[in-house]
Amino acid sequence: MTEKIIVVGCTHAGIAAVNEILKYHPQADVTVFERHDTISYLSCATYLTLGKTISNLDEAMYADPDYYRAQGIDMRLRHDVIDINVEEHTVFAQDLETKEFTTESFDKLIMATGSLTSIPTIQGVENPKVKLCKTYEEARDLCDEAQNDERIAIIGGGYIGVELAEGYNKSNHEVILFHKKETLLDRHIEPEIADKITNLLEDKGIQIKTGTIVKSFEDGVNDTLIVKTADEAFEVDMAVICTGLLPQADLLQGKVDQLTNGAIVVNDYMETSNPDIFAAGDACFS
Fold first, then answer.
1. Annotated catalytic residue 79
2. Taking the model in full, what pTM does it have?
């Protein structure tokens, strides 16, 4: 009997899972559900596009859905999985184009739903001049806006924030980088190295504000944005939120073991506490 496998999410972890299935279980019946209409987008593409390393975001796609369709994979892009019934081994999803609903059964399920941007509690964060930077659509907005904007505020000094600050600097934008901790990249590297990176960025003309918490975003004059801290205000054209990621695993809440932040607990073989469910990528990120 052919084993039926469903993969939920098709960015990096989902693509890796499908590739392994094709390699080791080529006879499996595989269905992929992906909410977006693209797969394999590399998040570094915003930086690469701004710095003219690549000419457009599409060059950061390394996999084509049609390739997998040709291998017999049922690729259902623009499908949103609404519920997973672990007892009945079914997935309930909606086609976002036709609005039709479907229920599919599985023998094995692979959760590769990735992560979401952790949006800080800042007054005015819903302002349209405040942008996110994770998905292909969000990156497209950032690159489009950059053609008219001159002054950019980056909120968050982790890997993504530092990379994006350098990207905008390369495209001749005025950049202010805010980070609530005393050193950049505080979760990743030693303070001595972080200080060298800070000095390098400042030498390039990037304004660094460490140990600084953004309190609010407000509309300014002439279609600008005011970024306020406890004792300063900065006028910019756009702000970008880069304050971390949260595992996107709510579909399995209460159905498998998870950490307090929602990350799915897996073993060395990417098995969850349910033997028929596997998970990979940012959905397991702690």
1. no
2. 0.89
